Amino acid sequence: MLVKVNRAAASALLTLLLLVGIAPSSHAQLGITRSKGQQLLDGIVVKVDNQIVLQSDVENIYLQEVARAEGKALPPDLKCKILQSLVLNKLMLARAEVDSVTVTDQQVNGEVDRRMAYFVQQIGSEKRMEEQYNKPIKTLKEDLRPQIKDQLTQQEMQRTITGKVAVTPREVSQYFARIPQDSLPYFSTEVEVGQIIIPAQINEQAKQAAIAKLNDIRGQVQAGGDFATFAKEFSQDPGSAIEGGYLGAFKRGELVPEYEAASMKLEPGQLSPVVQSQFGFHLIQFIERKGNTYSTRHILLKPETGTSDAGEAAKTLTKLRRQIQSDSISFAKAAKDNSSDKITGGNGGLLQNREDGGTRLPLDKLDPAIFFTIDTMKVGNITPPMPYRTDDGKDGMRILWLKSSTAPHQANLQQDYQKIAAAALNEKKNKALDEWFLKNRGTVYLEIAPEYAQCKVLDVAER
């Protein structure tokens, strides 16, 4: 049968399933606890074309919300809202298949590796991860991959629907005027913080040791040794090491230039010389070409940086700090030209608020390392160079700049335009999604289990 879909009741929950940055408190968050045989016993509660929603999908998310609530009362219709969100996500997946909205294997593999690395970090080690789930890491990745692909496809579908939506200053002002005065939010102290990061240089002795080690492995492989075995033992790329160094198939332009250039010179089975990239030093084994793609294995070594190697980075930052303080260069230009963090470097050096895309950050939500540094600083001051470690574990130095500090206040257009604009844009995007769902609700087959009929998932809510 063709049915109607409730859009408005679930608009705030569209991204509920995108489990990014969540501690692995349960097996369900990895999406890897059920085999296909077990799913048959689980119970299908909704069908959307060839997409299904399982009873456990609803229950797992509900339990996560209960854990987050920490004893606070939850909405009595929470399970219905979760189901509505799941149905809407499945509708987007169904339409994505029809409209040929896809994501690349590289995107999926990258997110699987990132997500798995996060869970491994939270649990403590790959060994403990495998013991907890009673599966090897490779199998866990394979189990996780379909879920990640669906999530990325949902995001891509949502971008195709709302990607061109924008708001004008007039629309922002009109949105703000509709908010009742007694409902205006109260913002705590907020700050704008800039940073310039310069990585420590690789110690020449460590660099030569890595090259020598890879050349030794190369010789052993050429003498009959197994590349995959060496990769599992020595490679410092956790994503591929467990798979014998296998990276998978990629198209031209998808891997860093140095790696690709070296790979393209090889024939199946051949080994490259030692190759240096931004990630470290590689020994590459070419596997095969298939059309426009090629596949390889590699062993990655990342030489450690010594404390003395941070000295050059500190000298450069000290010089930049003096130039900024004497107004001979702006902090924004210094960050753009020198910072190894390209995200903040392209944003005038300023850290970004992920919630609204602005540059003002709540003081009480800052990273502790930044909070305790700027808490006693005056606006305009710049710290001396300080040790820093990047997200991927590289050592370096950085300076921090306190650009501004805003006292606690009730929301207003003058001080909070970016936040209000982000909220207005979100509302407009939701309206665009409403229109899309209304237009496409009759293009899919949808069936819901009787026990969830009270959720009114099949009704269209008027705004």
UniProtKB/TrEMBL annotation:
Gene3D superfamilies: 3.10.50.40, Porin chaperone SurA, peptide-binding domain (1.10.4030.10). The keyword Isomerase applies. Keywords: Isomerase, Rotamase, Signal. It comes from the Bacteria. Residues 336-359 are annotated as: Disordered. Residues 188-288, 291-393 form the PpiC domain. GO terms for molecular function: peptidyl-prolyl cis-trans isomerase activity. Residues 1-28 form the signal peptide. InterPro entries: OMP_Chaperone_SurA (IPR050280), PPIase_dom_sf (IPR046357), PPIase_PpiC (IPR000297), Trigger_fact/SurA_dom_sf (IPR027304). This is Peptidylprolyl isomerase. It comes from Hymenobacter glacialis.
